[in-house]
Amino acid sequence: MTQYFFTLLLILFLAPAASATGDSLYFLLPRDTVVLRHDPASGLLLFDHYLAPRQTLYGAARFYGLTLDEVYRLNPTLRSGYTAGTRVTVAIPPVALRSSFTPDSVAWFVPVRYRMAPGETLYGLTRRTLRQPNDQLIRQLNPELDPQQLSPGQVLKIGYLRLDGVPRDSQLRVEDPFIMRNYSLRAEWETSATGKSVHTANGKAAWTSSGDKNKFMVLHRTAPLGSLVEIEDPRSRKTLYARVVGRIPEQAYDPRVVVVVSPLLVRAFGVRDKEFYVRTRHL
């Protein structure tokens, strides 16, 4: 009877997966594909969880040991809503990974893999990303591995994750990766604006798909070219800083548009609408 129940449990867990992670009862199942990637900006190991029917964002946050605010920091667009099948990026702390488990516990663990980034080495993966003292475990889990033949996109097995979730006290501090990338401009703003007269404006922000997609840049009507503008988005509750690189074309934008933001700012604020409300400050 015990063997029958164990076999039935395996059949249920290993049934063909839908386009979701877990099911209506469990956030992870042994049949799920868990492939992590490293985010250089935050130093976090990230995983894309796809919400199954009846799974909630709050439930997913708790399962992965995160707060709802931390999930929003990693997924700013989700503040406007989500549905079944929505991708939710979550952080997996290295300490949550197990190197092995007993044979009778197979139904309670999911294999975890890692996708190599361009230029990444086995040494960097083990010491810096996974925080392991050596590469012994990776070599054990990947017996055919040739460290000299690693390539971008290659997937390696790095351990196992329990199906009862990630303990909150094992999680790393999760900060918004865009805010972290914006730190240098924030520091420059604080230095340049100290003791000076600052102009404020409330109005619309529009965005353009042109320009450098990796820089925080804006078009502004009056702020000095090369100076910085502080932009607060009440919806996402984020404040970011961007450099003025040009003027707003009067014939192209509504007079109520106070700033035109670059694609990177659009991603950072999680904007979907063509225009959105902002509060700005500039020198």
Automatic annotation (TrEMBL):
Pfam family, one: LysM
Domain LysM: 112-158
InterPro entries: LysM, LysM_dom_sf
PROSITE patterns: LYSM
Name recorded for this polypeptide: LysM domain-containing protein
UniProt source species: Neolewinella maritima
